[in-house]
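Can't paste images in this forum, so I'm doing it all in text. The chain is below; anyone willing to post the predicted structure tokens underneath?
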Amino acid sequence: MLTNLELQHPFQEDTEKTLTVEETQLFQKDLKHLSAENQRQINKKINSLIALIQDSNFNSIKHKLQKIKIELTHYHASIYSFKVNRDLRILLFFDDDPLFNQTIITLLRVVHQNNRDKVIKGLAESYYQQELLTITPNKNGR
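Text version of the structure:
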């Protein structure tokens, strides 16, 4: 289940790109288990990302987000890691859709750096399960 996050700087004209920020229940749960200081840092980082998007500063955005490489059968997963501090990362989907003039950010999880790979594997299995099921067996049928 996803819930919408209120934006600090709402758009004012219909001609501008639409920005939607969603957060999963797992993201909300992760956030609740963190200290107030870590929660403040996360909020500040998300707002800075929103400001970059609203300024259409996509070169800066690409430097802030680390694309996670997950090889699937027909496409690459679009999971990104966003550094909060030395230890914490936000895992998210970042979808910039020029056809519909919108950007959608889905905040998936907040993880400690040392647990990141395990959580990413679980996210890939969860979100891309159907794609992973379509992998064809090798010549021996295995």
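Residues 6-14, 133-142 have pLDDT under 50 and may be disordered. The first helix runs from residue 25 to 32.
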